[in-house]
Amino acid sequence: MKVLLCYPPFCTPASPPYSITNIYGFLSNNSKHEIKVLDLNIKFHNRVFKEYKQYYLSLKQNFSYDEYNKITNQFREESKAVYLQSNMDVVKGKKPKEFEDMLKLITEHNPSIVAFSIVYSSQVFYTYALIKELKKRNIKCVVGGPSVNDKLREEGVFLKNEYELLEYIENVKIDYDTLNNDTILNYKLYDCEYFTPEAVYPIRTSSGCYYKMCTFCTHHKDSFYYEYPISNIEKSINISDAKNIFLIDDMIHKKRLFELCEIFKNRINWMCQLKPKDFSYDELKRLRESGLKTIIWGVESGSDRVLNLMNKKTNVAEIEQVLRDSKKAGIRNAIFIMFGFPSETSEEFIQTIDFLKRNKESIDIVSTSIFGLQKGSEVYKNPKKFGITKVNEESRTILEPKITYEIETGLSTNEATILRKKYKKTLESFNKYPKNMNFFREHLLLM
Ligand code: SF4
Q1: Which end of the chain is more exposed for a tag (fewer CB within 10 A), N or C?
Q2: φ, ψ of residue 300 in degrees (nearest 5)
């Protein structure tokens, strides 16, 4: 039996996919069948946007920020138009762009099973078209990942995780106690270059978030938290010959971070995502000395009331101190802000702007979003508690229903969006690096 693990278009082509690399590692340890990986997303981008790739591959340390923003704006506009047209074609029952070539890349492996990993909803359309076609050729298709929706479940067999995939492939009930869970990531499996001047490899060090309490978040809500052995992470780095690592965990425990420091020291340039809480200057300095270059901080708001509602268990005074210490330790601070949390007032919106102004010196780049109500989040389950009076769900052809809501007090989604537009220039003035590095975050590690 030949099993092909496939990462479909479309998502940012900045690094090889973690999901199928991880599944490959697990299946190679536990299955006798032939397993292959195919990053169809990078294959698509290498064909359609190769001039852009050349630009990113040749980026040097003294690059022009204006040129970078101009070229990346162009890439984003062009790619968005291509994705949109392809998605519309799928909805109309037509073939999306490069379809025959992408299909050939799959069928030339002569697979018995194609397992699609759907990490982003933007991958749903192309996958849908591919599954329709592969099924006509009697190739079995399975789907898994956080963005699988009902439409894909109707077309392919939905499997929750690598254990279910293994059972499906082996066609027997697996005795979990006999499994080899020493999964090693080997990024050498991919024979292509990505849209970065050097390779950046994504590594997850745990199965999810140990905190799981933020009221807007749905990440990992059903997953059991456990930490992968440090020795496996070290082996993954060695086998992949990694120099640059993006730790993609949404949150990493402080104790864990210092264990990771020990294996990264003097050889890895790395970045990660953290909550601005409980870090002293000395600790941040130690992290910097181990090669940590950039931290993406989940700041979210400059209002203590809003932070409490989000249940972040952070406060503005402490966030400011952590950002100052981090900057002083020589770390690049990229921060996430979320506007329009239910009941946030325009005064609280301005408080966040004031927070950014006060901390301008400590901030390297800001990424903002507008709150979106996620099915399964605490806000969705208890809307009244957050001042939400009505939740509307509007069905769509291929994607999951669009969720909107009405509120008692505070800014509506629309009002928060308008206010953010009004402060666009102010928000951009905090960036010490090209704003488009929020799109290609890997560049924040390399440049
Ligand atoms: S927002 Fe981050 S820290 Fe909060 S629960 Fe979600 S993953 Fe965990």
Answers
A1: N
A2: 75, -50
